[in-house]
Amino acid sequence: MGFLGIDVGGTFIKVVKKDNTSFIQDKIRIEDCHKSHQGFTDTLIDIIQKYKPLKVGIAVAGLVDKSGRITSSPNLKYVENLNLKAILESTSGISTLVGNDANLATYGEYVYGNGKGSKILICLTLGTGLGGGVVVEGKILEGVSGCGMEVGHMIVEKDGELCSCGRRGCLEAYVSSYGLEKIYTKLSNKFLSSFDIIKSAKRGEKRAIESFEVLVDYFSIGVMNLVHIFNPDRILLSGGIVENYPDLVEKVKLKVKSMAFPLPASILEIGVGSLGSWSGAYGALAFAENYSS
Q1: Residue-by-residue DSSP string for 172-186
Q2: How many domains does the chain have?
Q3: 123 and 97 within one domain
């Protein structure tokens, strides 16, 4: 029967099934008809019934409490206030675990990716927003109510740029696709999408390169804060911006190493996650395998 991991994104639901040592991957586009409580849960039930796992783990972007209720999801409003665990278990009869996608992406890298063997692993995903998770001695650091490590919403600038969460000065307001777009607009007085800014920076366009320098400065401050709080041995970066502008990793690594206290910096490795956009699905799978309901 095996185990099943499901990662719910804005456009796709990614699925990983494990039987013994073999893996099956699947990707389902989220259509408009799925974007309601009923449509969404029906889609997940169809997936579970298709694969008939022993147990299923689900990764969702948002705050998930210990009961499996999604209390907040700024980018997936149609899942808010769903007790996904209770609904799926009562309908499918399959034991279900639900967790935050960034936490589970970190756990996926710890179990199946470049985080193997790390004592304290931090993963940061830089894309539409900024997500993060921590695994300490093989255990996800979830927080008392299940919503720890909202890295993107640490304040790095008092009364700063408006964040998607509604607050000002969050790290995500500078270190994200929309953060990069805001920085570029301020420097150039014109708008480009984050994708076009990346292309321009690769071509050597001055304002695009300067925009990345600002992003790197803020990102490095955030990473340094995490180094001083957690003293990790490994930090992995991933997400669309990292994949499309790999110079970012080396720039952040050099800046953090120069800014952080020498002792925690001396044992720190900063690298790239190996699971890419599938880290949440593999983390949800590992969650189902290794955690009890």
Answers
A1: GGTSSHHHHHHHHHH
A2: 2
A3: no
